[in-house]
C-alpha cells in the first residue's frame, strides 16, 4: 500500500533541496532557475518512529524495517500553469496522482536566489499556487459535468449522484475556495475523492526559513502558520539548507549538529510525520526474533484488511489477530510477558486496528 505526497511550490523556494535532503540523494537538481526538475522525482523515506527500535530491542530482532512514505518532487508551478504556462499541464497532471500536497513556501530573504515574482511574500505565493490549482479543477469539472447532466436528465441514478457531487465542488471553486471545503455525507466521501480534484487533497505547508530561524521560525512563517490554522491544514517550519547538510552527515554525528543548531530533532522528521498524519495513516507492528517491522494502514482499518497489507492470503484466510497494545508489550517485557499478564487479546474480523498495536495474524491457507 503506497502513499504519495507531492512537493509543490513556485520555482526557487527550496523544493528540490528539500527532496534531496529527504532522499539523501542528489537526484533532483537544485539549480537556481525555474523548471530545473523536468520530470517528477519519486523517493521513499522511512517514517521516524522510536517505538520500532524499542520493540526490536525487547524482542532482540535481527532486522528492523520501518514503514515508508513516498515524496514526489514536482517542478515549480508559475502563474498561468492552469492554462499551460511553464509546462503547467504536465505538472498539474503529476499533482493529480498524489494523495496529499506538501506546499513549500519561501520564508527567507536571499539576494542570490531569485524569486520568480521578484518579492518575498509566502501568503501571496500560496494564493498563486492555490489559484492555479482551483482553475485547473474548475476547467476539468466544467468539461465533465455537461455530458453527465444530460445523462442525469434521462434518469441515470449514478449520473444524478455524480453530478450532485460535482456541483458541490463547482460552487466552491467558482467562489475561489478549495474543493476540500465541501460538506459531504459519509457515503459521499469515497466517490468525491474519485473525482480527481487537486484541491480536494489535504495540504501540508512547509515554511523554508533561513538557518537562524530554523528553531523558532520568523515573521514570514508566523503568517503561514496563521493561514494554515484558518484552513485546518498542517504547517512545519524548517531550513532546507540545514536539513540538506544534516542529510549527508554520518548518523552518529547528526545529534551533535542538531544540538549546536538549537534543534530538538531534524525538521525533516517532523515533516515526514506530519505528512503521515495528514493522510490519516497509523502504524501497527509485527515483532519477532527475525524482524521487527512497521506497517502502514489508514486509520479505521479493520483487522482483515490490515492483514492484507502483509499478504493478500492473510486477508482472505483471516481467522483472528493476537493483539497487544504497545505500552502493554513494553511494560510486560515482550510477547511472553504480555501473555502471562493477560494483556494479549484475540480480536476478530470487526476489530479496528489501533495505532501502535502489535499483531500476529492467524489465518487459513
Give a verbal description of the structure:
By secondary structure, the protein is α/β, with parallel strands linked by helices. Helices cover 41% and strands 19% of the residues. The protein has helices at 15-23, 50-59, 88-96, 122-153, 157-174, 189-193, 219-231, 240-247, 251-260, 267-278, 303-310, 312-316, 326-331, 335-340; strands spanning 4-8, 41-46, 63-65, 68-73, 100-107, 203-209, 234-238, 281-287, 291-298, 318-324, 345-347, 358-363. It has a 6-stranded mixed beta sheet, with helices on both faces. Strands 3-9-8 form a 3-stranded mixed beta sheet, sandwiched between helices. Helix 4 (122-153) packs antiparallel against helix 5 (157-174). The longest helix has 32 residues, at 122-153. The protein is flat and about 60 Å long. The two termini are 22 Å apart.
The tally of helices reads 14
What does the overall shape look like? Answer: flat
Radius of gyration: 23 Å
- Helical content class: 40-55%
H and E order: EHEHEEHEHHHEHEHHHEEHHEHHEE
Structural class: alpha/beta
* Average predicted local confidence, pLDDT: 86
Report the biggest beta sheet as strand number plus sense, adding barrel if it closes.
6 strands, mixed
N→C terminal distance? 22 Å
Beta-strand content bin:
15-25%
Counted beta strands: 12
Strand ordering within the main sheet = 2-4-1-5-6-7
Q: Identify low-pLDDT runs.
A: 25-38
